[in-house]
Amino acid sequence: MNPAVHVYCGPTISAAAAAALVPGAAVHPPVRHGDLLRLDPVPGMTVVIIDGVFGEVPAVRHKEILWLLAHGAAVAGAASMGALRAAELYPFGMAGVGQIYRAYRDGALAGDDEVAVACAPGDWRPVSVALADVRAELAAAAAAGAVDQAEAAAIAGRAASIHYAARTWPAVAAAARPGLAAAIGRLSRWRADTAPVPAKLADARQALRLAAAGRLGPPGPLPWAAGRWGSCQLQDWLAAYHGEVIDEVHVPFRSVLAHQQLYDPGWPGRWRRHVLSWVARSAGPAGYGTAAAAARAAGLDVADLAPAQARYWLTPAETATLDAGEQLARILTRAVPQDPAALVWPVTAAQAGRLINPALGSGQAAARAAVIAGQVAGTGPYRQLGDLRADLIREHLAAAWQVRPDDEPALAAAARDRGFASPGAAVAAARPFFLLAAATAAGAAR
Asked: Cα–Cα distance between 203 and 222 in angstroms, integer?
């Protein structure tokens, strides 16, 4: 399923109201970091951001939006988080809709808390009022003569002093009554008589009507997209969130990659060829022929390493028996993937190509592992993946890699030959699959 319009909303406008305004749209909860990277952006797709989460949950990043734009999708924002991001990214092709967007773009509004609200537990119903809505209603009341400009400014100042989660109209009235009781009375009567539509809601409706009419797309020429605008963080996020749906489970590519790293006996050889080829290619247009030659040309040679450095990357047996060329090849294979700036990691199955062994069924294994982890987590406390014993997972991996679990140098080398920074990093990646293996073994024993 790849709807033409995706909408992210919640407290500003309900999912049902959004769906009624844009029939056939995929309506999602407020956007958070990673959500946009789950999409498959194509020209003709429109993404409308109304609401987004922040604070305890990471907010949507700017480069996630740029990624959509670079792939030809139209992205528009309004009312809340959407207005904030549109005001920041309109020079790069994101469209903004409504008075709140324009206020942020022009500097009339600045703080993120202008549009923030608290929501009821379990759903997205707002239980506080946004300061931007308070300001808009005060401006309308002043224009109607219910309050004067000085009174409106004073009430807005009192409202701004209230934390966003506690800001309600009764709280605003209570904060403003000392010295402004008459103005609050007139404002309350005006609000009761006119029932003004909140500014955020009006902006959201406008954006959705434009989306339904096909008037929000696509962005024009994007000169920045032809340059190097991505980052190693974006690559990491894509691997963590982008993927495919397998057996009704969204499986990020990182999970597929982790299963291959952990369990395919042929992975270390393929990974080594992949990394060394990347090193040789990255040496520049002229090239150096081989990864070893490129490394030496850049000033890296085994002979120049301090003994402690060599011991970190090589086992005692490797130091004693391998020639300098093989030692350097192993160090490169183990060290280069740990550099965040080295874009050696594939982030999609298409990029990985022959690096992936399809016979292993890693996508299906990752989907089953996710389902089992969710089922186990629902059985009671201390049933999360993080509660699994690391020593048992370490033994599980040592057996799969045919090394002793107490041979730390050999275990570290085996983990690094598979692209992990350490045995601990491999244990973290193996947690869902260890639980899958345990469940499979328990089922077979019945």
From this structure: 26
**How far apart are the C-alpha atoms of 162 and 196, rounded to whole Å?**
22
Give the mean pLDDT of the chain: 93
Percentage of the residues of the chain whose pLDDT score is greater than 90: 81
Q: What pLDDT is stored for residue 126 in this prediction?
A: 95
pLDDT at 134 over 90: yes
Measured distance CA(254)–CA(345) in Å, rounded: 10
Contact of 41 with 75, CB cutoff 8 Å? no
Backbone angles phi, psi at 366, to 5 degrees: -65, -40
CB of 96 closer than 8 Å to CB of 83:
yes
| Number of helical (H) and strand (E) elements in the chain, helices listed first | 20, 7
What is the mean predicted confidence (pLDDT) over 311-328?
93
Contact criterion met (CB below 8 Å) for 81 and 64: no
- Of 23, 46, 49, 65, residue with least CA distance to 200: 49
**How much is the pLDDT for 295?**
83
For the chain, give every domain's residue range.
Answer: 5-117+202-219, 131-197, 233-445
The CA distances from residue 125 to 29, 120, 170, 216, in Å, are: 12, 6, 18, 27
Contact call for residues 80 and 239 (beta carbons, < 8 A): no
Cα separation, 70 vs 74, in Å, equals 10
**Residue found by looking up tokens 């999360």 in the block:** 384
**231: number of CA atoms within 13 Å, CB side?**
8
| Residue predicted with more confidence, 125 or 2 | 125
Cα–Cα distance between 29 and 34 in angstroms, integer? 13
Read off the pLDDT of each residue in 119-147 and give the average, rounded to a whole number.
Answer: 94
C-beta atoms surrounding 228 within 10 Å: 6
